[in-house]
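Troubleshooting log. The previous run stalled partway through. Resubmitting the same two chains, unchanged.
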Amino acid sequence: MTRALLDIVQLSLFVSGFALLISAAIGVPVGAWVGLHAFRGRRSVLALLYTGMGLPPVVVGLVVYLLLSREGPLGGWGWLFTPQAMVLAQTVIAFPVVAALTASAVQAGDPDLRLQLRSLGATPAQELCLLLREARPGIIAALAAGFGSIISEVGAVMLVGGNVAGQTRVLTTAIVLETRRGNFSVALGLGAVLLGITLIVSALLLRLQDQPVRSVS
Amino acid sequence: MSVRVEVRDLGLAVGDRVILKGVELVVQPGEIVAVLGLSGSGKTSLLRCLAGLLRPTSGQIRIGEVDLAALSEAALNDQRRRMGMVFQYAALFDSLSVYENVIFGLRYHQRLPEAELRATAAARLAAVGLAGTEALLPAQLSGGMRKRVGLARALATQPQIVFYDEPTSGLDPVGAGLIDELIVRVRDETGVTSVIVSHDVASVLRHADRVAFLYDGYIRLCDTPARVRGSSDPVVQQFLEGRPDGPITSLSTIS
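Second attempt completed without errors. Output:
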């Protein structure tokens, strides 16, 4: 049991962690760009991202399943019922969360800061780096929300992973399985492990957020 | 280290809204000129045009020999390094220490050794009365201290001209007086040209060499504080005395 449990925990962390990394690598720059630039269709892009935040994981799972199935356009990859498919589906779920919350975090910054950066002769790249740094608490919150949305979802990983023991079983799908089998204490235990992991990851992310709170007095 | 500013027939419109109609203003090298005006009269927009942060719709802005309006974005960026800007709320970078804030402009443009940056920051901070605050974060400073750090940062690159946006707003009278005194002292020590935008009449009449009054998109008057005080222009008088009744109605601020 311990060996199997370790595998499950490890795979959960790997799939959701990797999906979060990819979402951050794409979502933070995209969110920053949308948050800082005025362009035609900006409202529509934001509306799409906000809608994406509410995507039902099971629908994402279904679409990714159809894409990866043998007859699907990406069927040749042979990813269905592999951890790669799970990472792909969870990336689709986490990306809009990270991008939309990053956009709102950088947008909320003091607009004078951008003028100040320009008045100091900063290049666009230097400007972006500093604005991201200034928005760090909001961006970390975006990453935490993105991670929360995927470590806890069951619909997508169940559909595209298939809950194969030792291969694609993660904490959430294991909980579903054990509950169906009537092993409620095991299911509850797995739930506690899942909560513990979320707690630890959130605590780690909060440490990165270590900005002083401006005193109110 | 100072430069002459010449503004000719400057117009600025944002969308349908005409903010500046035909501003004429000359600031001599080393002079302190304050632009007074109602809230919403376009003072800050004028300052941003002068600092090369906002492109005017028409007219000329000559900083020394250069016409800002004719420059490309890259050339404008080079010009901005000759100028310093102190923002109304200081616009400090909260994620950086006071030290990193002060040397921000220097670090990017001149490959100076760290020891030299340290020395520059120490000198600039001492000049604004904040010696030894390098390691503090902006969140640990009061409003007045933040403004002074903003000033130290603007001066770090040894600009030829400094623009101040509402330097005394939000400060108590003593804090405001301290900033006024600093502005004059910085000018006396470095000879830098200074343009201040403010609605703090008392402060401006005390320390500016000349005062310009921006009203309805034009500079209505530009003269020494004594002559501005003695002006018979009813608009200027109403503003200086802060009377609610007179030629200025609340509607006239929305043009």
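Takeaways: Chain A is about 75% helix and 0% strand. The domain at 3-210 of chain A is CATH 1.10.3720.10 (MetI-like fold).
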